[in-house]
Amino acid sequence: MSDHELELKSIQYRKHILKYIKMAGAGHTGGSLSCVDILNVLYNRILRVSPETFEDADRDRYLQSKGHSVEALYVVLAERGFFPESDLETLCGYESHYVGHPTRKVRGIEHNTGALGHGLSVSVGVALAGKMDDADYRVFTLLGDGELAEGSNWESAMAASNYKLDNLTAIVDWNTLQITGRTKDVCKTDPLDDKFVAFGWSVADVPGHDLKALGEVLGRAPFEKGKPSLIIARTTKGKGVSFMEDVGKWHHGVPNDDEYAAAIRELESAEAVLKGEKISV
Amino acid sequence: MGRPNQDVVAETLLELARADKDVLVLTSDSRGSGKLVPFGKELPEQIVEIGIAEQNLVGMAAGLASAGKRVFGVSPACFLTARSLEQIKNDVAYSDRPVTLIGISAGVSYGALGSTHHSIHDFAVLRAVNNIDIVAPADNVETREAILAAAKAERPVYLRFGKVPVPDLHPEGTPFRIGRAITLRHGDDVVFVGCGETVCHAVAAADLLSKKGVSAGVISMHTVKPLDAETLLAAAKNCRALVTVEEHSVHGGLGEACAAALMEAGVSVPFRIVGIPDEYTVTGKQADIFRHYGISAQGLYDAATGLLEA
Q: Which of A113, A138, A215, A258 has the most Cβ atoms closer than 10 angstroms to its Cβ?
């Protein structure tokens, strides 16, 4: 897949995220838009997993610790063929498996998450099993920056370096906002790189919407033999829709009809530019 | 007199691990109290030391299980079922990973150490969590069988054990199934329904009662969830009083589970729950605390005669 096609996918995913959140009348809009480029690169460039290989013991694993951004994961998994996209029309509906946080009832999802501070521990367990079995699968997990206030993350961060899990990569969706406000004001986690280095990790910093840079850094993991890798992905909450970008209320804001139309117009216009089409204003 | 159940736990885990390299034991700096030092010496690759981090222990257990490992998490019951309750609820039970969690030094085993170290809440909290069985074996035979059953269960199981020697209640080879109570003796006047290390006291109380001509039955309801309502109801319909006994708060444990089953079946029988009342728990040895709250031959004798004479 070309870089250009990958760029187009990101826009498609964003449109789908908004479409299904709008349809459901619920969802975590801002965080899904901030992490979707990371998921795009993971599922289209990095992870050795597909609907056909999802039960294979040696598949790469992705666990989404920041479970609330599940809409981004759903649209990427649907596009990758794990389930029909039309399933998402039931998002958050009565008895739907497509609930507001990931569950294993949805094909392609490795672990039930939603309560924060769980995904890293579970990922450490999966990665340790891989080391014990001399398997060559890799484990990736996505954490929110606000989520890092959960103390359990730091228990698992210590364990990961203690067990030298260089088959584990954690990515922080560093969008700097959480429901109450700026993460640095709610519970400062800076300097995050120093903290993880002190915990025995190897750390990289990357612009989180730069697909090429994400592909490069994810492809480079593990950064050091014998150490787990941390990627701080500098992202923007609500990325791709100008009026949602870096605005706290879109944490779980659902666009009204006018906002939805404006958002889709903006994304389609970006799509047209990318395709080199003439834009009619 | 038998051995401490925890000795049997460690021995059975070692036996399982020798036969299957995917059997792992996870400890939170708890291999000493879990009697797992010999395990660690013999099979160092199959014991995973997590450190004093129970949340991470349970999360990692779920991750290891998802990758095909047969995981036994061994940690003091007081921490395992409180500190890491959310990991049990989400990562093990909700995510449906076949992890066996073993709460050691359970109930008031650490009696003198104070309430921080008591686990008299574990039945109550885990009864309200979907998709996890709760088992409190009474003696060495039940303990070994419960570990073997959990190893084959393919679903989340919580087992809890204490650390003092317990009397042998069953002959070797007694059939054991999670969810199926064992009737130790039948009784027409009163029936004791207990679990874990309280069952031996119910047996002793039944002995005292029979000397007075009272016919007393004893049921080891080792599985608190799913409750064997069939055995309970059959016994309740054929006696004049029923006493439950547990090393747990009187709230939310075996007694309330039995009361609900009886009420829902429309079976009415004079009934008493013996356990730890809702107060600051007294401290001392487990035996002291048991005696204080009537979890003893005399206490249970009094509870039974109180109901029969009322």
A: A113
Which of B59, B64, B95 has the CB atom closest to A156's CB atom?
B59
pLDDT at B310: 85
- Count of domains for chain A: 1
Residue A280 in domain: no
CB contact (8 A) between residue A112 and residue B59: no
Structure tokens at A91: 């998002």
Q: Are residues B35 and B137 in the same domain?
A: yes
Strand-pair category, A61-64 with A139-144: parallel
Q: Is the CB of residue A65 less than 8 Å away from at least one CB of chain B?
A: no
The conformation of residue B180, written as its DSSP 8-state character, comes to: B
Q: Per-residue pLDDT averaged across A29-41, rounded?
A: 98
CA–CA separation, B258 and A234 (whole Å): 55
pLDDT value of position A277: 78
Q: Which residues of chain B have pLDDT under 50?
A: none
CATH number (domain holding residue A247): 3.40.50.970
Joined together, the tokens standing for residue B196 give: 């874990």
pLDDT digits (tens, 9 = 90+) for B39-60: 999 999 999 999 999 999 999 9
Per-residue pLDDT tens digits for B248-287: 999 999 999 999 999 999 999 999 999 999 999 999 999 9
For the segment A148-178, what is each residue's pLDDT rounded down to a tens digit?
A: 999 999 999 999 999 999 999 999 999 999 9
Residue type, A271: E
Residue that the structure tokens 């954490």 belong to:
A143
Q: Which of A116, A121, A139, A162 to mutate to test the interface with B (most CBs of B within 10 A)?
A: A121
Q: Is residue A184 part of a domain?
A: yes
By the 8 A CB rule, do A204 and A230 touch?
A: yes
Answer yes or no: do B51 and A162 touch at CB < 8 A.
yes
Residue B309 among the catalytic residues: no
Query: Has residue B169 been placed in a domain?
Result: no
Query: Are B155 and B186 found together in one domain?
Result: no
Whether A118 and B59 lie within 8 Å, measured CB to CB: yes
Domain shared by B154 and B109, yes or no: yes
For residue B159, the cross-strand partners are B102, B135
Give yes or no: residues B47 and B139 share one domain.
yes
* A281, part of any domain: no
Give how far A148 is from chain B: nearest CA, Å: 14
Question: Which range of residues forms the domain containing residue B62?
Answer: 5-160
Domain carrying residue A232? 3-275
